[in-house]
Design brief:
The chain is an all-beta fold. Strands 2, 4, 5, 6, 9, 10 and 11 form a 7-stranded mixed sheet that branches. It has a 4-stranded antiparallel sheet with strand order 1-3-8-7, with no helix packed on it. A hairpin with a 7-residue loop joins strand 9 and strand 10. The protein is globular. The model has no long low-confidence stretch (mean pLDDT about 95).
């Protein structure tokens, strides 16, 4: 089973940019869909973006379309989330997950999360 670990969170002013990274273990990284989710205080965890194993297919939550970009480097077993034009409402713990498909229920391997705080 693949294991994942996020990094790159921090404090950023509104309008700024940040790149999150997620490193995965295992030799079969390229077969997994990789996703980013987030959970703000007092709210449920929500989907942010996913990328297919090949990197050719992606999807985004409406709230981040045009501002966030998900990408992956299968040679490095790493997936990235490039976040720009950040808003205070993007403040959340961001989680990386690996799964066998694009539906939310397919994501079974989760990281511990990384905090992103956007100041107004």
């Amino acid at each position: 089973q693949v294991q994942v670990a996020e990094s790159g969170g921090g404090l950023v002013p509104a309008g700024g940019s940040l790149r999150l990274s997620c490193a995965a273990s295992g030799r079969t990284f390229s077969v997994y869909y990789m996703g980013w989710f987030r959970q703000a205080p007092g709210k449920e965890r929500e989907f942010v973006a996913y990328v297919s194993g090949s990197g050719r297919s992606t999807d985004y939550a409406d709230s981040v379309k045009g501002r966030f970009t998900i990408s992956r480097d299968n040679a490095k077993n790493t997936v990235y989330l490039h976040m720009s034009s950040l808003k205070p409402e993007d403040t959340a713990v961001y989680y990386c997950a690996a799964g066998g498909g694009p539906s939310r229920a397919d994501f079974r391997s989760w990281g511990q999360g990384t905090q992103v705080t956007v100041s107004s």
